Amino acid sequence: MSRFVYGSLMSPEVLSSLLGRVPPRRPATLRGYRRFAIVDRVYPAVLADETTINDVVDGEVLHGMTRRELAVLDWFEDEAYVLTRVDVTDEDAYSDERVVQAYVYTSDKRHELRGDWDYDAFRAEHLEAYVRMCDEFREDIEDNDLPGDDSSCEGTDDDA
């Protein structure tokens, strides 16, 4: 299964901290959504509504993950995010359009969104502390009942 990521999860350091490795990834674009900064948060949100129809969000598609890795990412995401099927354009040799899943911010939290989120600013100002927080998260869930690492999702069609 694949995930379209557009914020802190684009950082190899964050992925390595959470998953113990950086899964294969490739650039992708999500159309009809906008990436916002969130008040009092260092990570972003994407949201689609009538005002974002012409907007695009550049990000990455992560693929080749195990069920456990997907469960870790799902658990890591805030409850304000809903795992949503989205169409992205990527550089996949087999297709220009892909249906994948992304963590989309719930529209009832829109009042918390402020302007655009900047990946480079996140890396420069917050990455080190964010990775430490991710390390702590991974330690906290290490013994939780998540699917095993041998449960590869490659070849499944759950996200199409």
From TrEMBL:
Keywords: Transferase. Residues 141-160 are annotated as: Disordered. Residues 4-118 form the Gamma-glutamylcyclotransferase AIG2-like domain. This is Putative gamma-glutamylcyclotransferase. Putative gamma-glutamylcyclotransferase. GO terms for molecular function: transferase activity. It comes from the Eukaryota. Coiled coil: none annotated. Belongs to the gamma-glutamylcyclotransferase family. Pfam families: GGACT.
